[in-house]
Amino acid sequence: MTSSLPATPALSRRGLLKFSLGASAFLATAGLGASLTGCSAQTPASGFISLRQSDLPILRTLIPVILAGTPAAEHLEAVLQRLDNKLASLSPAMLKLTLQLFDVLALPVTRGPLTGIWGSWENASIEQIQAFLQRWENSSLNLLRMGHASLLQLLQMAWYEMPESWARCGYPGPPKI
């Protein structure tokens, strides 16, 4: 019986390292390019402390999918305000990293290849967003897994801090003093 497996693996350890290095360089270059060309406005959107206008369509699309099964979509603007307050309390270094994550998701040159969402966030289907989240969650690149975890943690913290979420999870609220 003959084996149909190739004599050498298709992707060696060296090949994987080269791919990872290339992907990291691509992300760094795209982020730097966006910063230098002014593609990522650093001024907050009207009514926000940290969130920029380019961040809002991404978050308005992600919140109902990430927080599916909760009434968070009914309280979208309140969740965005809570998230904005959370971001404002981050250290400058952590805020910069978070905004860079949003830049990667906003720029078409990085959004398409990294998320599989080639059009605008507003036109993305729930299935496309779920596929993107699953792709990042299970990625072989640590950077994408960290981005996925950051998105989930930020949005979950913003939602579950709100009194509207407490009754659904059985939390009576903080003790009255």
Task: Summarize the topology.
Elements lengths: L12 H25 L18 H11 L9 H13 L3 H15 L1 H8 L10 H12 L4 H19 L2 H4 L11
Q: Can you put this structure into words, describing what you see?
A:
60% of the residues lie in helices and 0% in strands. The chain is mainly alpha-helical. It has a domain at 55-166. Helix 2 packs across helix 3 (76-88) and helix 3 crosses helix 7 (142-160). It is globular, with a radius of gyration of 19 Å. The chain starts with 12 loop residues before the first helix and ends in an 11-residue tail after the last helix.
Residue share in helix: 55-70%
Structural class: mainly alpha
Overall shape: globular
The biggest sheet, with number of strands, parallel, antiparallel or mixed sense and barrel status, is: none
Number of helices: 8
- Following the backbone from N to C, one meets helices and strands in this order, namely HHHHHHHH
Report, as a whole number of angstroms, the end-to-end distance.
Answer: 78 Å
Query: Whole-number average pLDDT?
Result: 85
How many distinct beta strands?
A: 0
Strand percent estimate: under 5%
Low-confidence stretches: none
Radius of gyration (Å): 19 Å
